[in-house]
Amino acid sequence: MNLMMLLEMAASGFGDRVAVVNEGERLAYADLLRAAGAAADAIAASGAKHAAILDVSSLALPIGLFGAAWAGVPFVPLNYRLTGAELERLLAQIEPAYLVTDAARARALRERAGVVAVAREDFVAQARGGSARSAEWSMEGDDIAVLLFTSGTTGPPKAAVLRHRHLVSYILGSVEFGAASEEDAALVSVPPYHVAGMAVLASSIYSGRRIVQLPSFSAEAWLDLARRERVSHAFVVPTMLARIVEVLEREPRARAPGIRSLSYGGGKMPLAVIERAMRLFPESDFTNAYGLTETSSTLTVLTPEDHRAAAASDDPAVRRRLASVGRPLPSVEIEVRDEEGRACPPGVSGEICVRGEQVSGEYLGKTSRVGSDGFFPTRDAGSLDAEGYVFLEGRIDDIIVRGGENMSPGEIEDVLLGHPAVADCAVVGVPDEEWGEAVAAVVVRKPGVEATPETLREFVARELRSSRAPARIEFREELPYNETGKLLRREVRAWLAEAKSGRDSR
Asked: What pTM did the predictor assign?
């Protein structure tokens, strides 16, 4: 099993069909196959052990993904928003690497040992102008296909390992080959380093659907591109959908594009947002897809029929399902387990554990977290109802999911503790209609040293980036700890909710 198998089948079945569209450039399936072969030659000639991309979505993304698969090296999409120090830590883990990036970064990295940096435009031009590759690709399913860096509860990011068998199993179990018509088009607006970006790319190619890339998201650009390219399918994270809804509501004359299938996932969707979206896109089939980087994307689906039934029902139990993430795919098993590892009955909260061929649960250089029974503990809290619908309740390990991006509270706390005015602090996620979750902090100041919320926000933004800076900062005399010294984050969240409620009531 190899990702190249998916592209080879597509190129054989509909080679003249347009595979990818990016800012006016178009690449057919047969041309993508040939370009992937030329890219594989370049990667192999470099001697690199990994092929990475540090850039927004472009034609380089599918060429690089399949070129790496053909060359037999892992593909590593890196977060292009990383600071220099953050990027350096990740590059050190994948050396020697063949890195495709923007022209400015390629020049900056040209002298760095362990990295062959190539500008995006040069990479695409050389691949498209290259000759077909004769070498065969490995069909060993345990070869690593993709490494995706994801944050833990504390400490630096770790690389989730997705092997070819994981990704191919997911595609074969959820997509029908050649099911798309030549007119079908999927709008991809999630960044390359998001697991959904990899999953949408592979599934669209296997189905024969045209991929329309939006390199930089804005609601206005998304709506315009969807109309111009007559997009039929799209995937968005909740934050994106909230902004699209706001634009359509703000501009009554704005015409919603005729999208047949609109999927969302990557974070908690506020109920008010999905209800408004369903009114604005009455002809669209909505799908909520829940999954993790470590599971090759989707595990459960709330289908279009589920959405319609829940929205139309007067039964609270049925209507509540609109806030669920649906039921497992046929190839996936889900159990909710208590702290002793026992299965919880319907309606009882615990940790969501999953099993299936697409589940990796493995990190580079670390022991697999998959148990002897094949189940992977997701660290997500939730419950099942009597009909098997999954309801998420948050992250057991306190990861903050802001706009589909996972953030480590420990990382932000470490930065705050570096400020001369901060004696102690706790960072948690709080509900936010736009982002799903927002970053909030409770800070204990050192005696006699002053600091304002704004100065602390600016301090975090400089050290990390603005998206990780707490949107809310409250000051307290001390933080709540139990007798063993463990921070009681649930009490921190309760403080923040109480403070907000007090302000709202005034």
From this structure: 0.81
